[in-house]
Write a structure and sequence with these properties.
The chain has 417 residues and is an alpha/beta fold. The chain has a domain at 86-112 and 215-393: Rossmann fold (3-Layer(aba) Sandwich), CATH 3.40.50.1100. Helices cover 35% and strands 16% of the residues. The chain has 14 helices and 13 strands. The protein has helices spanning 90-96, 115-128, 141-153, 168-176, 188-198, 212-218, 220-228, 245-259, 279-286, 312-321, 331-345, 351-366, 387-393, 404-410, and strands at 8-12, 18-20, 35-39, 86-88, 100-105, 133-137, 156-162, 180-184, 204-206, 236-240, 268-274, 325-329, 374-379. The strands form three sheets. The protein has a six-stranded mixed beta sheet with strand order 4-5-13-10-11-12, with helices on both faces. Strands 8-7-6-9 form a four-stranded parallel beta sheet. The protein has a three-stranded antiparallel beta sheet with strand order 2-1-3. β10, α8 and β11 (268-274) form a beta-alpha-beta unit. The longest helix is centred in the C-terminal third of the chain and has 16 residues, at 351-366. The radius of gyration is 21 Å and the shape is globular. The chain starts with 7 loop residues before the first strand and ends in a 7-residue tail after the last helix. Bound molecules: pyridoxal-5'-phosphate and zinc ion. The site of pyridoxal-5'-phosphate has 19 residues, from α3, α8 and α12.
């Protein structure tokens, strides 16, 4: 992984103040807004072997190392994240009447969600700055990923999760990887407020998506989609929104491709929220330039159960500037979509990860997405993260006696003549 290092620095998304790449900041000291990482997209970027040379540089986050903010490649903490499948869904195409449907299956990542793309960069940064303990607030997947990457890096890890509201698979990952897991009597937004406060203490290194280094890793999914489509982009990108970091990361990734002259236009960004946690949807529909945080959030898609998303500003820009939209889908629609994807395509996504399919089903019916479109849905997390929800909502587990007649009756088949 040796080679020339990218030149990068930090820029405030509000007042545009700039800071050196080496500064340890989570927000702009001048105005308090979030920070973005910017690069010279010139010479270094041209070293990336777009659309060729997959033997020496397999598809994955570090294929794009010239566009990632790392000081010393020897310190990289990696488990070969990224390089996830872009799955063509021909059965859904037939069923929904849309020309091309793909699922970018982020369940393929080492801990089963897209968070690993961000953590490989974020935890590498934690090592570079000499942090003792990584921390995050999490609806589940961030804690699984941070715990695993911190374990690998030999760092202590503390995660704050909303008590009773995180899927069991995710909780068990955080515990087995040795994190100190605090189940807070409150929601995700309460947890985030506390860890932001804690992160003023330099012993802690904060790895929520306020941290701009995480989004850098996550943007690589957009580069991969471009390469997997043979050097092209979809007409529509459907993606869940919780804290809104991932949609911003994809926006950045596709924007980079345009700025490098590799594509002419970005896909239209279709953000999906759950009806019970949809402040960005409301702001979008009202044409507002601000969001109103939602106090009492509730949805079966616990990964996106967030009422006060930190990255809302750029999420709204992403959908508005690409001619997209934000929609809110119901829990019923999410569970129906999850089942459809699993039963027609063999692809098992957790509820939040299936929410783009819920929007697609609705958009195909209403004509919002034209039949002749090419669509990519981002399935952000693996279905095994949350087996409880499937068992609670499945009717097809049948208990029978261990006897042939009973088995055939249960299968609704007559005995053989
Ligand atoms: C499976 C899954 N989907 C979607 C999201 C939302 O991502 P973001 O918070 O970056 O909007 C999360 C975040 O936890 C997640 O775990
Ligand atoms: Zn600022």
């Amino acid at each position: 992984m040796h080679g020339p290092l990218p030149r990068y620095w930090l820029r405030c998304i509000g007042c545009c103040a700039e800071y050196p790449g080496s500064s340890r900041l989570y927000s702009c000291p001048r105005c308090g807004d979030l920070l973005d990482i910017v690069y010279d997209l010139g010479e270094e970027a041209s070293r990336i072997p777009w659309l060729r040379n997959f033997e020496s540089r397999p598809l994955g986050v570090w294929r794009y190392r010239e566009l990632l903010p790392v000081e010393d490649h020897r310190l990289i903490v990696s488990m070969n994240e990224g390089g996830t499948r872009l799955i063509r869904c021909r059965n859904l195409e037939r069923e929904l009447g849309i020309r091309e449907i793909y699922v970018k299956y982020e369940g393929d990542n080492p801990t089963g969600s897209f968070k690993d793309r961000g953590m490989t960069v974020g935890v590498t940064r934690a090592v570079e700055v000499g942090a003792e303990t990584t921390i995050c607030a999490s609806t589940g997947n961030t804690s699984s990923s941070l715990a695993a990457y911190s374990a690998r890096a030999g760092l202590k890890c503390a995660v704050l999760v909303p008590s009773q509201r995180i899927a069991l698979g995710k909780l068990s990952q955080a515990l087995i990887h040795g994190a100190r897991v605090l189940a807070v009597r409150g929601n995700f937004d309460d947890c985030l407020k506390i860890v932001r406060e804690l992160s003023r203490d330099p012993r802690f290194y904060l790895l929520n998506s306020i941290n701009p280094f995480r989004l850098e890793g996550q943007k690589t999914a957009a580069y991969e989609i471009y390469e997997q489509l043979g050097g092209d982009v979809p007409d529509y990108l459907l993606i869940p929104i919780g804290n809104a970091g991932n949609i911003v990361a994809y926006w950045k990734g596709f924007s980079d491709l345009k700025n490098m002259g590799l594509i002419d236009a970005l896909p239209r960004f279709m953000g999906v929220q759950a009806e019970g946690a949809c402040p960005i949807y409301r702001a979008f529909v009202e044409g507002s330039s601000e969001i109103k945080p939602v106090e009492n959030v509730e949805t079966v898609a616990t990964a996106i159960r967030i009422g006060n998303p930190v990255n809302w500003k750029r999420a709204l820009r992403a959908v508005r500037e690409t001619g997209g939209l934000v929609e809110a889908v119901s829990d019923d629609e999410i569970l129906t979509a999850q089942r459809l994807l699993a039963s027609r395509e063999g692809v098992f996504a957790e509820p939040a990860g299936a929410s783009p399919i819920a929007l697609l089903m609705r958009a195909a019916r209403s004509g919002l997405i034209e039949r002749d479109s090419r669509v990519v849905c981002v399935a952000t997390g693996h279905g095994l993260k949350d087996p409880d929800i499937v068992l609670r909502t499945s009717k097809n587990l049948i208990e029978v006696d261990s006897e042939m007649g009973a088995i055939l009756r249960a299968l609704e088949m007559a005995p053989r003549a």
